[in-house]
From TrEMBL:
It is an enzyme of class 2 (transferase). One of its GO terms (molecular function) is zinc ion binding. The lineage of its organism: Eukaryota, Metazoa, Spiralia, Lophotrochozoa, Brachiopoda. Residues 252-274 are annotated as: Disordered. The gene is LOC106175676. It comes from Lingula anatina (Brachiopod). It catalyses: S-ubiquitinyl-[E2 ubiquitin-conjugating enzyme]-L-cysteine + [acceptor protein]-L-lysine = [E2 ubiquitin-conjugating enzyme]-L-cysteine + N(6)-ubiquitinyl-[acceptor protein]-L-lysine. This is Non-structural maintenance of chromosomes element 1 homolog. PANTHER family: NON-SMC ELEMENT 1-RELATED, NON-STRUCTURAL MAINTENANCE OF CHROMOSOMES ELEMENT 1 HOMOLOG.
C-alpha cells in the first residue's frame, strides 16, 4: 500500500500554491499597462490606477499584494515594479524597472545604441562618484572626450541628455546647470551602483535608500536626503548626526517646515557656516 505522499509529487505543491496566489486578472493587466506607458508614477497616481482597475474589473485586493502578484508574473520577463522615493521631491513613487542581472538599461535597451549606452554609463559613474550626487552640465558634455572607442560630438551628447531626461533617467536642471540621476535610474541601477561604486554610494541614515543628493555629515560618512533631514531635525535646535557612534553637530540649516510636495532642492538645507 503506497503512502499518501507517494501518490502525489510533493515538489509540485509549492507550484500549485504559488499559481493559486499569483494569478493575474484583467485588473492586474490594466494596472500594468499604465506602468508600461508611464514607467514612474507617484503614489497618488498609482492609487488612482489601482482604484480604476478594481472599479472596472472588480476584485477585493490590497495594493501591496496586488503589486506582488504582478511582479511574480512579470519576473520571467525580467521586469519588476519597485517602490522608491524621489530624491528631488521626497514623494513616494512606484517604478517599472528592468531587473535583469541588476544592470538594467546598461545591458539591455531597445531605445539606445551601444555607443549611446556607453555615454550614459559614463554619466552615471561620474554622478555616482560626485559628493553632491550631480555634475555640471559642462562636465557632462566633456565626458565625450573620455569615452574609449566611441566618437561622439558634444551636440550629439546634448541631444542624448535631452532624451535621457525625457525617458526619466536623468534630471537636467537648466537653472542650476547640473545633471543628476532620476528615480527610475536609481531604482533600476541600485545594485549596479552599490557594486560598482561601493566607496561612494551611501544609504540615507533615515530611509535606508541610496542617497546621492543629500546632506553629508562633516565627521563620518553618514548622509541624509534633504527631505529626510528636514523630517529628522524638525523642531530641533541643535541637530546632531544620527549615525550610531557619531553624534557630531549636523552642519546644515534646515528649512522651517517642509511639505512633501515642496521639498528642498540643492539650494535649500544650506550648509551652516562654521
Ligand atoms: Zn532618506
Ligand atoms: Zn556623522
Amino acid at each position: 500500500m503506497p503512502k499518501f505522499f507517494d501518490l502525489y509529487d510533493v515538489k509540485l505543491l509549492p507550484v500549485r500554491i504559488s499559481t493559486a496566489i499569483f494569478v493575474m486578472e484583467d485588473s492586474h493587466r490594466l494596472f500594468l499597462q499604465a506602468f508600461m506607458t508611464h514607467y514612474v508614477m507617484y503614489t497618488k497616481e498609482v492609487k488612482e490606477h489601482f482604484a480604476m482597475a478594481l472599479k472596472r474589473f472588480g476584485g477585493d485586493y490590497e495594493l501591496g499584494s496586488f503589486v506582488i502578484t504582478i511582479n511574480e508574473n512579470i519576473k520571467p520577463l525580467n521586469l519588476e515594479i519597485r517602490k522608491g522615493i524621489s530624491e528631488k521631491t521626497g514623494n513616494h513613487c512606484y517604478c517599472l524597472v528592468n531587473a535583469s542581472e541588476n544592470h538594467g538599461i546598461l545591458k539591455q535597451s531597445s531605445d539606445y545604441t551601444v555607443n549611446e549606452l556607453e555615454y550614459f554609463k559614463k554619466l552615471v559613474g561620474e554622478i555616482a562618484k560626485s559628493p553632491e550626487g550631480s555634475i555640471s552640465s559642462v562636465d557632462a558634455l566633456n565626458q565625450v572626450d573620455k569615452l574609449e572607442n566611441v566618437k561622439m560630438s558634444k551636440k550629439m551628447a546634448q541631444d542624448l541628455i535631452d532624451r535621457f531626461q525625457k525617458d526619466l533617467w536623468i534630471i537636467s536642471d537648466v537653472n542650476e546647470g547640473h545633471i543628476s540621476l532620476d528615480t527610475r535610474c536609481i531604482l533600476e541601477l541600485g545594485h549596479y551602483l552599490k557594486d560598482t561604486y561601493e566607496d561612494f554610494i551611501v544609504n540615507c541614515e533615515m530611509c535606508k535608500q541610496i542617497c546621492l543628493q543629500g546632506q553629508s555629515c562633516g565627521s563620518c560618512r553618514a548622509k541624509l536626503h534633504h527631505h529626510c533631514a528636514a523630517r529628522c531635525f524638525r523642531n530641533r535646535d541643535s541637530p546632531k548626526c544620527p549615525a550610531s557612534g557619531c553624534g557630531a553637530p549636523w552642519p546644515y540649516e534646515q528649512p522651517e517646515r517642509v511639505e512633501p510636495s515642496q521639498q528642498p532642492t540643492q539650494n535649500q538645507g544650506r550648509k551652516r557656516r562654521r
